[in-house]
Specification:
Blueprint: E1 2-6, E2 8-9, H1 11-29, E3 33-37, H2 50-58, E4 63-65, H3 76-79, E5 101-105, E6 111-118, H4 129-139, E7 148-154, H5 158-168, E8 174-178, E9 188-189, E10 195-197, E11 202-203, H6 214-221, E12 238-245, E13 252-260
Parallel strand pairs: 1-3, 2-11, 3-4, 6-7, 7-8, 8-10
Antiparallel strand pairs: 1-12, 5-6, 9-10, 12-13
């Protein structure tokens, strides 16, 4: 079983890179299941639209996760309940539409659970992620309702992400962080068999400030004339992880960073 997880898609540049390259990547790498974080995919660099959702799914994406920007494009609040392949954080407050966990079928016939969580520190208010996680694990078991489990932990701080990796160790196939837009170099298989990476990075133009126009970002830091943040438009790098997993137990055998094209194309 081969799983590809790609970090936060940022603006038009990131969407173009997915549409132009993902179908061939799936074919060349024989990928069985693809998850992307799409919460920054709209042209403004925040939120996601129904049209973008459909385009990503048509490009070979199996599931789209989100985070704190999930409602920044107001239309998402309406269509998310109709599209089960678009998730919002599981631990949002109770009245949020849509789902934060769902089970899907992979290209090779396995059941894949995808859980979207959001951290509590320096993020929008949501339910206690550690309590929610403990409750989830009491009710859901690997190789029971699903053959594999992928967890997107959308959070600001590394300690929360690492703690979440250890909580899920042995109970999930992959725990991967999103939100910071910077790929970390700590991908590994934990002691009990769960693949872990602190942050997948982004699918966007890395000749930027976390995907946003460099000069405008600098102007804002220097308190010069500037506008609201907007995405950089250069060629995007696709960043994330590729995991090989064992169908017998649902745990990871191998994890490798995945970086394709753009500013970071020569980094591997």
């Amino acid at each position: 079983m081969k799983i590809l997880f790609l970090g936060d898609i940022v603006g038009n540049s990131g969407c173009r890179a997915i549409k132009n390259n993902l179908p061939n990547i799936i074919k060349d790498k024989t990928i069985d299941f693809v998850v992307v974080n799409g919460e920054n995919a709209a042209k403004e660099g925040v939120g996601i639209t129904e049209n973008i959702t459909n385009e990503l799914l048509s490009s070979g994406v199996d599931v789209i996760t989100t985070g704190n920007h999930v409602w920044d494009q107001k239309e998402a609040y309406d269509f998310i309940s109709k599209e089960k392949r678009l998730l919002r954080p599981f631990n949002l407050l109770n009245d949020a539409p849509g789902k934060g966990f769902e089970i899907y079928n992979s290209r090779n016939g396995f059941r894949v659970g995808v859980l979207n969580l959001m951290g509590n520190i320096f993020m929008k208010k949501c339910e206690d992620v550690f309590k929610i996680t403990n409750d989830f694990l009491e009710k859901n078991k690997l190789k029971d309702k699903y053959d594999f489990l992928i967890v997107d932990f959308h959070g600001e701080i590394t300690s929360e992400k690492m703690a979440m990796g250890h909580i899920f160790d042995g109970y999930a196939t992959l725990v991967v962080g999103t939100h910071t837009h910077v790929p970390t170099n700590d991908g590994r298989v934990l002691n009990k068999g769960t693949a872990y990476l602190t942050d997948a990075g982004m699918c966007g133009d890395y000749n930027s400030v976390i995907g946003m126009n460099t000069q405008n970002s600098l102007n804002r830091f220097f308190k010069r004339d500037s506008s609201k943040h907007y995405p950089a438009e250069g060629e995007a790098s696709l960043c994330g992880v590729m995991v090989e997993a064992n169908p017998k137990n649902g745990l990871a055998k191998k994890i490798n960073s995945f970086i394709f094209g753009g500013e970071l194309k020569n980094i591997n």
